[in-house]
Amino acid sequence: MDFELSDDQKMLVDTVQSFCKKESPTERLRKMRENPIGWEKKIWQQMGELGWLGVAFPEDVGGLGGSFVDAGLIIEQLGTTLVPEPFIPSVALAGSILQAGGTVAQKEQFLTPMLEGSESLAVAYLEAQSRHTVTDVQTRAEKTGNGYKLTGKKRWVLNGQGADHIVVSARTGGETRDTDGVSLFVIDPGMKGVSVNTVTCMDSHKAAMVEFDGVEVGEDRLVGQEGQARSLLELSLDYGATAACAEGAGIMQAVLSMTRNYLTEREQFGAKIGTFQALQHRCVDMFVETELGKSTATMAMIKIAAKDANERKRAVSAAKSQLGTGGGFVTRQGVQLHGGIGVTDEHDVGLYFKRMHILSALFGDEEFHVARFASLPSFEEHVATDPLAG
Amino acid sequence: MDFELSDDQKMLVDTVQSFCKKESPTERLRKMRENPIGWEKKIWQQMGELGWLGVAFPEDVGGLGGSFVDAGLIIEQLGTTLVPEPFIPSVALAGSILQAGGTVAQKEQFLTPMLEGSESLAVAYLEAQSRHTVTDVQTRAEKTGNGYKLTGKKRWVLNGQGADHIVVSARTGGETRDTDGVSLFVIDPGMKGVSVNTVTCMDSHKAAMVEFDGVEVGEDRLVGQEGQARSLLELSLDYGATAACAEGAGIMQAVLSMTRNYLTEREQFGAKIGTFQALQHRCVDMFVETELGKSTATMAMIKIAAKDANERKRAVSAAKSQLGTGGGFVTRQGVQLHGGIGVTDEHDVGLYFKRMHILSALFGDEEFHVARFASLPSFEEHVATDPLAG
Amino acid sequence: MDMSFTPEQIAFRDEVRKGLREIMPERIRKKAELDQSFENEEVMEWHKALHTKGWSVPNWPKEHGGPGWDATQRFIFSEQLELGGAPALSPFGVSMVGPLIIQFGNDEQKKRFLPDIAAGTKVWCQGYSEPNSGSDLASLKTTAEKDSDGNYIVNGQKTWTTYAQYADWIFCLVRTNSQVKKQAGISFLLIDMKTDGVTAKPFLTSGNTYAFCETWFENAKVPKENLIGEENMGWTYAKALLGHERTMVAGVGISGRMLLRIKRMAKNTLRDGRPLLEDPTLRAKIARLEIKLEGLRMANYRALAGAQLGHAPGPESSILKLRGTEIQQECHDLAMEVMGHNSLSWFNEPGTVPPRQEAIPSNFNYVRAATIYAGSNEIQKNIISKLILGLPNG
Amino acid sequence: MDMSFTPEQIAFRDEVRKGLREIMPERIRKKAELDQSFENEEVMEWHKALHTKGWSVPNWPKEHGGPGWDATQRFIFSEQLELGGAPALSPFGVSMVGPLIIQFGNDEQKKRFLPDIAAGTKVWCQGYSEPNSGSDLASLKTTAEKDSDGNYIVNGQKTWTTYAQYADWIFCLVRTNSQVKKQAGISFLLIDMKTDGVTAKPFLTSGNTYAFCETWFENAKVPKENLIGEENMGWTYAKALLGHERTMVAGVGISGRMLLRIKRMAKNTLRDGRPLLEDPTLRAKIARLEIKLEGLRMANYRALAGAQLGHAPGPESSILKLRGTEIQQECHDLAMEVMGHNSLSWFNEPGTVPPRQEAIPSNFNYVRAATIYAGSNEIQKNIISKLILGLPNG
Q: Is the pLDDT of residue A384 over 60?
């Protein structure tokens, strides 16, 4: 067991931290509201050049060969100033699908340019009826002579508005919610029949509603085996959830810190409000949840690469569920302890509050992950574990 | 709308209050641990003579013709000093069954002597597998020539150890958990084939495990229609739940008051601990739950007599669920704020804590009542309620 | 004890429903049905519609244009409005400065101000809070100095002046004596927003609405006739106002409406092909919240029954704001959960999410203020601790 | 970063399991399997069994009879014991006075006391708390005055002296100087329970067990050799001890065992004819608690990895007691819920409820103490507020 950062990791964290402070303080997020895609390609390019996007990918696709712990450390720091670049949709969601399921050619064509920062990606998996069930897919991909024809509507495609390529889930067989029969395709937004409508999200990010009206693609655009996308999508969303936990850990740390500072500065009734015991204990509760959030996020970052999918799911669901409860608590109390200014757009705490909600809602909310945790074999197996029995 | 107590009610409350203080302070409960039935017939007799047992029953069966609100006011006061006499099993559980389902002869034979305080009653409805489902009954009553023969085991019969008669649920038809087919019979503990084993409960009360081994009774011992006991049992348990809420309200009031006093007296670090804001706010939270508990208990006391069973169930389930959460909170925090002495047997707060758990566990716990509340027609009907629509 | 309304009260409720439906403009009714938010002009249109019925100032005495209702009737009226999703009137004229003028104003002030408030022809806002006086309101610094004519020259800054950008008048707490205990040097002034030197600048809330302004006073000259009551007695007047209508602060109607909305949304939201409302876990969550609200409603009824009999507010009334605002927040948390991915949506084109859901993300943010304003819940607990539980001061 | 144990550590764990199974007396094993409570004599029997393996004092250095394990090995050992439901050794000798003597005692004291502690032949208890010094321990009043020979005459009353009725020795904080700041006048004395003037009287806890005594000292004469370290330095020694084994206080093994027990109970409990464990609502409840425990376990691992490297405890270690005790209580709440009506049972004949359930109602009561003793959770929060968050003093 070892939770120390290596010297390389420490340097990485320092670099990202100083980047966030200098290049992308929270004020930049407010400015990005006016940007049509909500983020900047030049910054993305810079992240690619610094190796941040590819840190967790093997060297043969242009990565640095590190682990997702390294990626998590970066995302955590980006969370502290709410950097809006599409790390989660492009690297965690799409990157994990291409890495796990793409052919060598697909990796070269779609993954490597993204890791270099010259392109970005998205995954279109949500539909109006699908909630958190990845196989609840009505978009259809019909087999044509030399490829597929896609028709359907996807909603809330993170970075759908900015992506150069979009990985889309579509049914090549079966009925809605059949566990088999879903396939993945790489679509370019410029293809005939694709329409991308940008929408605004609560966290000042943007996303897209994407429609496919008989979009034709070749077989080379199929990612993974036909009809077998379920496990790739689950893996992808688990990467998304883990990244959300990492970013959430950064947010909690930032909110705890600004709240602590506010309590130390703000005076009411002739005293620093940080001398009021009820507020002190509230702040301690925030601290406890922050520490637990960091702990479970670390667990997910380590276990996301587990060979056993159930081991991965257990850690990710525990962390994501903790994010929903603990992250919600920390940001809510952060607002409350700031009093009036906490509910102005001008103050950063509201931005963290918003982003935390989005992170909690995405990739399975607290209810979903508690239910998943309770349905894993490990939940029942635990009953048979007794170190001293027999 | 009127929540004022009438002059009669005020006098009643005063009388019970002074009885509790003088005749049955909490110290008496500790003494009753040595008593084979856990309570005293002479006190019960006194309660009957004062009219407390019959206050909510019509005059023709020997009652005072009041409402269950009056009974609730008495039970609430009895709760403040944890008076151990079997008001809930005898009056609320058995009394409500006999009043709603008994014949004139049965009321005369079983109900009236109980209301007068010369006898006491119990209801045996729980079995090992039944949890909170009143129709989960395996005890069987087979039809004989001129009556029934009962065989089966009942558990945790409140006042089973002290009752002169026990109302027993048994199957006259159908299989375990069929909604129809359960009937009720009045059994005397002295009948051949009845064995009563006294057990001790956490709240210093006693109860009994009662077994029936071919116990023969005449048809005159059948209460209500054969096979139709379900609604009588549900009514009976709702009376029990309402009484539990009333007693719980008294307990919360007592715990709040002793905790407030302790905070005002106890010194640590050179100050009254009641000056520490975190403890002040905790005590306020206890106050809030106590007020809500009183409010919902009152609602249940009023609605228990509603003609519409669903209206009754809604109010009772709301109150019982509030008792589970709020009552649990108040007694837990009561112990916590008393510190070390709170976990000694010598201090009263632990007695209240124990009794509150029992009240929460009986007659449907919090989970049960939340689920029942959510399954009532009113839950869905609410969707159709919009005062300004159309 | 009796928790039912009398037949007369039920008839009154039906009359209210009928009357409200009659006067509600079609455009507002449609928005109300879909739980949409209202613009300021719609609120004022609704105010004027209520005024045609004589229902715009339900808590005023008859002589000043009120309908002459008792506490229970006012509660019923308010609950029906809330349950129906009708626009909430601006409280600053109707519920705050109006009753204050009625209680402490002189005849001239009553004649001058009350009719316009009742009719909705003049809009008021409140100038209490300042940037450095949050929960510690009495530490306010805006000064009013007398000039040679006895008029007031006001200087300072107010904040959280709700909808000051639409207001014709503002009522202010100002410091007229800085040599005494902070509460003892405060006066209550009515100030025309068009006065030279008064500037209101809206700022964005975290809900992305311009609900509040910062308002500056720079040598703003206020006629002495605009002083309410006596100089330096403003704190007393403001405090007296706080006791008004304690039975209304729980917002049981608002939360009841919100639960209704949550159930409707959950009925129309699918999970694994079934309406989400059928999920026992979600039903239990909604039920727990509904049960909390039932408890609050009963506490509110107890407070109301007391008020109806003219009693001083009992202990149960002190929990109404505390618990009511917590429930409002929990309702919004749950609504966002039911919305699922639609809860990401932020001021998009109509049609992006179902109409009933459109306003929720903004409100989810803004409702955080409910536990902060009007005496934060921490302050409420301090008050209960001292005044009701009698716990010692530190 | 790596959260897995090394192959050596896994081999160690397996060796521990095997060793424990070998030495565990049959009677104790049977009780452990059914999660039953242990009598004092059984605990001491188990202590002696562990001693045969050299495992009775896992946190002592090798020279004093410890096994020479590192922080992680000690954690693994302790977690296996807890997870297996083995009797918990009395900590007062093994984890408290033993390490204190090792750190601050003289050679004579080490020779005299340590072997008996390790062997389990002498039982110790703790004399810290007094009736009027709860969270404010330093305000203790028991005095030790020097007689003409330099020995101490002790007078006063201690309370919460755990199992003093079985103890051979008690270690006490006593006041040797009342003229100075309260912390500065305290000394650390070892007192033979058989000394004239020492009386221990057990009292019932709310869990109906005689776990604690009140202990009186009436002119009890204590030889000067029994003073640890220097006079008036007792507070410093006691505080140093608090820092020991911070990684052990979370009780993740204990709560893990409890969750296991809850699941087993729920599997064997019927509701509507089906095992209760199949109910999604209950599963979610258990899962939420298990997830909380996973979080705590990870925080514990982080603390442990730091301790292994010899670092000072990080911020995460301060939450272990706070959160660990909350989880212990929640486990008992949930266990009582699963038990249903069986949770009414109070010290009845065996067979009244299933064996695994027998001890739960008593523990449900007694576990309330977990958030009170060893620095109440309120005190823990005060400490975190000041020492870690650096919030200002009032």
A: no
**How many CB pairs lie under 8 A apart between chains A and D?**
172
- Using an 8 Å CB-CB cutoff, list chain C residues near D288: none
Return the number of other C-beta atoms located less than 10 Å from residue C147's C-beta: 11
The model's pLDDT over D265-289, given as tens digits with 9 standing for 90+, comes to 999 999 999 999 999 999 999 999 9
The length of chain C in residues reads 394
Interchain contact, B299 vs C3, CB within 8 Å: yes
CB contact under 8 A, A281 and D385: yes
* DSSP designation for A327: I
| Closest CA in chain A for residue D264 | A383
Spatial contact of D167 and D201, defined as CB atoms under 8 Å apart:
no
Which chain D residues have a beta carbon less than 8 Å from that of C281? Answer: 280-281, 284
CB contact C281 to D (< 8 Å): yes
How crowded is residue D277: how many other Cβ atoms within 10 Å of its Cβ?
Answer: 22
Rounded CA gap, D15 and D23, in Å? 12
Annotated active-site residue C230? The verdict is: no
Q: What is the pLDDT of residue D246?
A: 67
> Of D170, D223, D217, D159, whose CA–CA distance to D193 is shortest?
D170
Residues of D whose CB is below 8 A from B345: 203-206, 208
> Who's near B70: CB < 8 A, 6+ residues apart?
B9, B12, B55, B56, B64
Contact D246, D303 (CB under 8 A): yes
Query: Among B269, B336, B340, whose Cβ lies nearest the Cβ of D129?
Result: B340
Q: Which fold has domain D124-241?
A: Butyryl-CoA Dehydrogenase, subunit A; domain 2 (2.40.110)
Domain residues of chain C, as ranges? 7-89, 124-241, 245-388
CATH of D245-388, one of 1.10.3710.10, 2.40.30.40, 1.20.140.10, 3.40.50.1100: 1.20.140.10
Token pair listed for C242: 């706080």
- A&C contacts, CB < 8 Å: 124
Q: Which of C223, C226, C117, C131 is nearest to C171 (CA)?
A: C226
The whole-angstrom separation of Cα A137 and Cα D230 is 76
Choose, out of A325, A345, A360, the residue to mutate when testing the contact with C (most C CBs < 10 Å). Answer: A345
User: What type of residue sits at position A340?
Assistant: G
The alpha-carbon gap from C36 to the nearest alpha carbon of chain B, in Å, equals 14
Q: Which amino acid is at B237?
A: L
Both tokens assigned to A332: 């809510």
pLDDT for residue B70 is more than 80: yes
Q: Is the dihedral of CA C73, C74, C75, C76 positive or negative?
A: positive
**Whose structure tokens read 């407010």?**
A30
Helix, coil or strand: residue A183: strand
- Closest approach of chain A CAs to the CA of B209, in angstroms? 31
Separation in Å, CA of B220 to nearest CA in chain D: 31
- Residue among D130, D245, D290, D330 flagged as catalytic: D245
Residue in chain C nearest B1 by alpha carbon:
C3
Q: Is this complex's ipTM strictly greater than 0.90?
A: yes
Distance from CA of B264 to the nearest CA of C (A): 6
Q: Which residues of D touch B155 (CB under 8 A)?
A: 341
Tell me the C-alpha to C-alpha distance, in Å, between residue A361 and each of B1, B13, C345, C361, D182: 43, 52, 12, 12, 53
Phi, psi of D152 (to 5 degrees): -105, 140
Closest B-chain CA to C258: B383
Instruction: State the Cα torsion B290-B295-B299-B300 to the nearest 10°.
Output: 0
Chain B partners within 8 Å of C316 (Cβ): 291, 294-295
Q: Which residues of chain D have pLDDT under 50?
A: none
Give the number of other CB atoms < 10 A from CB of residue D195. 17
Give the pLDDT score at A328.
98
Per-residue pLDDT, D394:
66
Centre a 10 Å sphere on the Cβ of residue B103 and count the other Cβ atoms it contains.
13
